[in-house]
Specification:
Rossmann fold; 2 domains; 7 helices; three-stranded parallel sheet; alpha/beta; globular; 185 residues
Length: 185
């Protein structure tokens, strides 16, 4: 089932309100970007479910709403394939248990149809997005790290670790990051 954007977007939905607020905020901050990037993080450690699909579909709705306001926008489907395997999903070979904690992008695909376990899992969700007409640009977390996409941000976080911890404390109420970085190898 593919929903056409004109059926829902531009008619005062919450998606339209969010898009308007984003554009207004960016204008107030003096940034007014020529191009908006809307991102949905795709978990690659377990089987996709309605919640993971819903997150991507909502992000796509925001992208469409931005476009209905005359803005250029894209949806980035970011695969969190650097995440470690937390548990072996039901119905999967128990031999995967030796990979608990390994990045899912470095675990062999137990079904031999993708380059890795992570590619298999994210491929299932990307296939669902394709079948429902969601347009996106896929970015693998592993490739993004390998290509140095986050190097400047990582350097900035490390340089300002104390302030980052204070911001997390102020916004999330978690004090532990005032002493240690939120990094889990």
């Amino acid at each position: 089932m593919v929903l056409e954007a004109p059926q829902i977007i531009g008619r005062g939905t919450w998606l339209d309100r969010v898009a308007s607020e984003i554009v207004e905020r960016e204008n107030q901050l003096g940034r007014a970007p020529e191009f908006f990037k809307v991102e949905s993080g795709l978990a690659a450690s377990g089987l996709p479910h309605i919640g993971s699909y819903g997150d991507a579909a909502r992000a796509y709705g925001v992208k469409l709403a931005l476009e209905s306001l005359g803005q250029k926008a894209e949806l980035i489907a970011f695969t969190d394939d650097k995440d470690g395997l937390r548990k072996v999903p039901a119905g999967f070979p128990k031999t995967l248990s030796k990979y608990i904690g390994f990045p899912v992008s470095s675990i062999p695909d137990p079904f031999d149809c993708h380059g890795s376990y992570g590619a298999h899992m994210s491929g299932l969700l990307l296939d669902a997005l394709d079948k429902t007409g969601v347009k996106y640009r896929h970015v693998s977390g592993t490739k993004a790290y390998q290509e140095g996409l986050f190097n400047q941000q990582i350097d900035k976080i490390l340089t300002n670790a104390k302030r980052v911890g204070e911001i997390i404390k102020e916004t999330m109420g978690q004090e532990k990051y005032t002493e240690v970085l939120p990094y889990f190898p």
